Amino acid sequence: MLRKLIKSNFKNDFSHLITYFLIMVLAVLMLHTGLAVFRGYETLHEDKKEKYNFADIMVRCNLSPEDVDALEAILAEADYIGSYEKLNPVVMEMQRREEEEKANTQNIYDDHYHYLMTLPYGGWGEIEAPHFIELSDREYENPIYISSYFSSDIFCAKLGDTIELKMNGEYMTFQVAGVFESLLSSSYGFTYVSPELYEKWKAEDAEKREKLLSEHSEEGASDLYERTFFVSTVADGYKVSDAAGQLTKALSEKELMANVFDVENTINDLTYMQNVIAAMLAAIAVIITIIAMIIIYFRITNSIEQNIENIGAEKSLGYTSKQIRLSIILEFLLSTAGAVAVGIGLSYVVIAAFEEKIRYFSGVEWEHPFDPVSFLITVLLILGTAFLVSFLSTRVIKRMDPVIALRFGLDSHSFKKNHAPIERSRGPLTWILAKKSVLSSLKQNVILFVVMLAIGIVTTFAVYMWYNCVHDASHLYRMLNLVASDVDLRFSDDADHRKEIEALPEVENAFWLDSFELTVAGYSCDATVTDDWSAIAEVNVYEGRSPKYENEIAIGGSLADTLGVTIGDEVTVSYGKVEKKYLITGLEQSAQSQGKDVSLTAEGAKSLGYEPETTQIGVFVKNHALKNTKSLVKKAQEMYGDRLQAYGDAIETLSSGDNQIITIASIIVGTMVVICLIVIVLSLNLLVKTLIIRRQKEIGIKKALGFSSRQLRTELILSMLPQIGVGALVGSILGGLWSNPILSSLLTSLGIMKSGMEVFAWMVALSVCFALVASFVIIWIISRRIKRISAYTLITE
User: Fold this and answer.
1) Which residues are within 8 A (CB) of 540 and not within 5 positions of it... i.e. 6 or more apart?
2) Which is deepest, 69, 580, 596, 641, by most CB within 10 Å?
3) CA–CA separation, 269 and 527 (whole Å)
4) C-alpha–C-alpha distance, residues 677 and 774, integer Å
């Protein structure tokens, strides 16, 4: 008996169930994809590090042989280092032939040269050995083995491809014989070639360096020594970040100039984009699910009202309230289960394409196996919510008496107030009828309001992202950098060129910046230095101020949270053998060091024993205008000639849009807009169809009275647009207010604690217009079925 009821329900509600099914497929697809991506990348790099014994810490240096020995002695004696290995790659400047015409070695942003740390194939140890995800069995004349991190973006080559590279000025043809993954080494350009070619390059490099060393004094020859890397694991019981901080401090005390990289920072760099996308997908999925559940409630309650006579007949035939309710609940649970199956299946298709596109950011391959946890969370959340809503919506059936239901039940005694009586209301009749519909349909009003509220939030956030990250990406650039110069000028001499540059008509503000590495309370940090922070027009300090005096410091908000300090507290700073306490005057943010950064005055740096250099000049041009940056660069080249080693025109680079982050932001924005359109179409399709079926007798009578289909369709649109407009307006206002907090919460792992990007009133207005126009068009199209309703079709014998 129950089977017959369920089949009858499916037959009667088939068109509505299709729409509901599609909404739920979209929700499941996004929720499961978001969960699977987040869970997959959450432990992926750490698991690979443990499985393949990738390094915890890497040290890079250009030191004399004696200093290299001293550095190795520190590693050997440190109780926080488990084991280590030394690598001596040959540094090769590489350029693809396709990039030759684009190359501009002076512009640091347009530079299409890359530095490869080449090692002999097979010449690796037990730590940070490459794990090959693709390896050819063929023998090649000139094989090259590249990391997946570089292959997807820089080499743009796959296994077996032939590539022509310009290596240190000489063109060579290679065949890609293998693609490997690692963490620290692949991020810094480690590449493997045949042992014979490596030995040849090594001999040439040694001869070249020996010649250059003989021409330079020992004091200025640090960059001419052999490049040395140490890869190490951390001893049991030590955190990677703590060990890296202690090692940085130890090297500094011995005055050994070396860079220390820890794998935790690298993993943060490699996963932040995936985590942002996953969080956004999951959030939008929750919004869609809420919309779908509201629509379930609306559909079930309207179906009960519409089929009340049938329900009374079913009770008279012996069906219990429990059976009738169960048939309705199972109808939606079975539809939801089908949507879950299809949505999860599609999710794995999307994940495969997503993983391939995002591999440049992740650096390693994610096999994306079946994830039972994401599956269970998705199934339980979606099916559980569908069951709860359908269970609560059908409670009214228990209170229905068969006799009353057969005599038109809920409509037999209507005590509803007559809103907007036609005989006393002024205005066009269509408007009056639309007003009556609005005032008498509380349930419809609430549903439309909530649906458009959610759409307004998502749409406004999409507009906000488009404006700040795609249309004018300089807003994102400024948020991610401590000092986001329009132009950086890098000189070979240490003369202070600020006054000459600031005198140029294009320039608003010029300043010098220098940076070095130190430790703060044991944590390795990047320090930025200038002589007067107040003279820099824009500094990314979100609370407090930059340092003014020798004993003051501003620190990254992420570091402040880790240390449990804030403005007014003191922190211990170490550089070399010097250790001092500094007063925190401000909290700053920068994505370059995941929030582990500080800023000091020149005097504050000198008191630690560091002598700042003024070789890098940052410039803000007037109005941040592209024409001004181009003019400035041209004049600087004419004024300084060879003394200008390089420049960086950030405005020109951002304007070109040739950036991975900008591309992904564009995809996110486009996806959000498409999702909003799909949700509006599916939601309104379900609502409008339900309303038309519910009012078909009323529509037929109105047609018999002389109303045209156009008038009735207009009435329907006018009865829905006010709720749509109000919901979209409230949602868009909330979206405008919440956009910056949402973005900053997504970027916290990067060290961004507070977003202050532009939010304008027109973003809200555009979002509301989008919702109204899209809704108007969709309702007008869907309401065409009103043309097929007439008084004659409603006559029953």
Assistant:
1) 478, 479, 481, 482, 483, 484, 588, 589, 590
2) 596
3) 19
4) 8
Q: How far apart are CA 642 and CA 491, in angstroms?
A: 9
Instruction: Provide the 8-state DSSP code for 226.
Output: P
Q: What is the pLDDT of residues 585-614, one digit of tens each?
A: 999 998 777 788 899 999 999 999 888 988
DSSP string of 637-692, one letter each residue: HHHHGGGEEEEEEHHHHHHHT--HHHHHHHHHHHHHHHHHHHHHHHHHHHHHHHHH
Q: How far is CA 74 from CA 59, 68, 773, in A?
A: 12, 10, 68
Cα(484)–Cα(278) distance, rounded to whole angstroms? 28
DSSP string, 489-535: EEESS----HHHHHTSTTEEEEEE-EEEEEEETTEEEEEEEES-GGG
How would you label 734-766 residue by residue, b for 16+ Cβ within 10 Å and e otherwise?
bbbebbbebbbebbbbbbbbbbebebeeebbeb
Q: What are phi and psi of 510, to 5 degrees?
A: -130, 145
The whole model's pTM is what? 0.78
Helix spans in 177-262 (H):
184-187, 195-215, 240-253
pLDDT over threshold 60, residue 120 = yes
How far does the chain reach from its first CA to its final CA, in angstroms? Answer: 29
Sequence-ordered alpha helix ranges (H) in 307-320:
308-316
> For residue 366, which phi and psi values (nearest 5 degrees)?
-105, 115
Residue 309 to residues 186, 250, 304, 625, 794: CA-CA distances in angstroms?
Answer: 71, 85, 9, 71, 16
| Cβ-based neighbour number of residue 88 at 10 Å | 14
Report the chain's C-alpha Rg in angstroms: 33
Least confident of 168-172, 434-438, 683-687: 434-438
Residues 6+ apart with CB under 8 A from 211: none
| Residues found in the chain | 797
The continuous run of DSSP H or E covering 5 comes out as helix 2-12
Taking a C-beta distance cutoff of 8 angstroms, is the pair 138, 177 a contact?
A: yes
Selection from 693, 697, 698 nearest residue 437 by Cα: 698
pLDDT, mean over the chain? 82
Query: Would the pLDDT of 408 be above 70?
Result: no
Q: Are 599 and 486 in contact (CB under 8 A)?
A: no
Phi, psi (degrees; rounded to nearest 5) at 483: -130, 110
The 227-234 sheet, strands edge to edge = 81-87, 227-234, 57-62, 258-262
Residue 779 vs residue 682, higher pLDDT: 779
Decide if pLDDT at 432 tops 70.
Answer: no
DSSP 1: -
Q: Quickly list DSSP for 451-499.
A: HHHHHHHHHHHHHHHIIIIIITTHHHHHHHSSS--SEEEEESS----HH
Q: Give the integer Cα–Cα distance in Å for 5 and 181.
A: 57
Query: Nearest Cα to 724, choosing from 454, 442, 449, 458?
Result: 449
Tokens representing residue 242 in the block: 């703590």
Tell the residue number behind the tokens 């000139």, with chain if given.
142
Whether 288 and 679 have beta carbons less than 8 Å apart is answered as yes
Question: CA-CA distance, 452 to 140, in Å (whole number)?
Answer: 61
215 CB contacts (<8 Å, ≥6 apart)? none
Instruction: Quote the CA–CA distance of 45 and 365 in Å, as a whole number.
Output: 9
Structure tokens at 291: 């919309």
Task: Using pLDDT thresholds of 50, 70 and 90, give the confidence band for residue 390.
Answer: confident
Most confident segment among 263-267, 294-298, 307-311, 724-728: 724-728
pLDDT score for 413: 43
Q: Which of 511, 568, 589, 538 is nearest to 749 (CA)?
A: 589
